[in-house]
Amino acid sequence: MTSRLLLFVLLVASCSLAMAADPSPLQDFCVADPNEHLFVNGEFCKDPALVVADDFFFSGLDVMGDTNNAVGSNVTAVTVVQLPGLNTLGISLARIDFAPGGINPPHTHPRASEILTVIEGTLEVGFVTSNPENRLIARKLQRGDVFVFPQGLIHFQSNIGDCNAVAIAGLGSQNPGVITIANAVFGSNPDIDENILARAFQVGVDVVRQIQANF
Ligand SMILES: *[C@@H]1O[C@H](CO)[C@@H](O)[C@H](O)[C@H]1NC(C)=O
Asked: What's domain 20-177's superfamily in CATH?
């Protein structure tokens, strides 16, 4: 009896490990139906008889994003929002453009690992392991190089070349989500109490206010 119980517990544990990415589809496809407004985990399926090729199609990833902004980068995402056929498939894509010196600032995807390939330029990329280790794992990437950022870990990319850089990232979720650390911590609405941030970052409240003003 006890060993059966143990087996059951192990089975349940291994199932929850296997669910670390988006759940597997239970049909060929489930094209997201934008006309349904009930809230479910994912999107409702469009009637399969009405599905057309364009439901699985997106165009425009050849177009450079505008990098004329504070960080000098631009992410063009192709998730279930832009491509309804991705619903339930557990994958998505992004094009990332970098001006010289531009960065994709430290951020995390709560629901996806990311595999990135450099199409043009030279990037310095890295991620930090979880607490308490906080080890930085980083390296330089050239055109054609591929790097993987494990799910949930804080990571970044920086264009260290003299020209524009372009990367394509595949993500293990139809809706990976993004938490940009600086924006989330210093630009939340309403603000996190400045005394909390001053204590957390071990600086004066004046420094916290200065950073908050930028977000
Ligand atoms: C990214 O590029 C698109 C297309 O040029 C533009 O509409 C958007 O505002 C840009 N985003 C940022 C954050 O600069």
From this structure: Jelly Rolls (2.60.120.10)
